[in-house]
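User: Predict the structure for this protein chain, please.
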Amino acid sequence: MDAVIIDIWADLAHLDSYLAKVALESALAEWEHGDEVEVVWHAYQVDRPSTYDAHRLVHLATARGRGDVARELAMKAFVTEQESPTDHDVLRRLGAEAGLEVEAVEALLGSDDHGYDVRVDEATAAQIGFGDAPYLVVDRKYGVGGPQPSAVYTSALQYARDHADEAPEERGASVCGGACGSCACGA
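Assistant: Here is the predicted structure, written as structure tokens:
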């Protein structure tokens, strides 16, 4: 069986996003198929543009195989330690702690490198249509919004695994009310 994929849109300086991360990690540790899950993180700014540079730093770290470490360090610094996600000195320190080269972090902060990655993540979030972080999409079919207890994430994972061979139910114009913006219902 293929791995269950979880796409998660979260902000690095957002308590609910941090709580969701902790609950998801707990769910994955407890679920018997937790080792068959691939988690893909996406940038989402609750208070634009306060975490823009921090998200770019995590994208840089991800490109260098250090994304999970950088995300963990950033979320702890911003949520539990109340450090500023806009402070470049904090970002430099977090980059170094995550194992990134000083020159790479300096180059990032002096440019818009990985800005495109952040904007693509946010554009995808807008297309999905959720209004706040965190937001999880399990197996590219099932959405779970807000921070949830680990049992909710476990249940969503099991449901996705049990229905892996099924296509998601199509939503007709009468169901969406035009919210999707892509149908011809005219609403």
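The chain has a mean pLDDT of 89.
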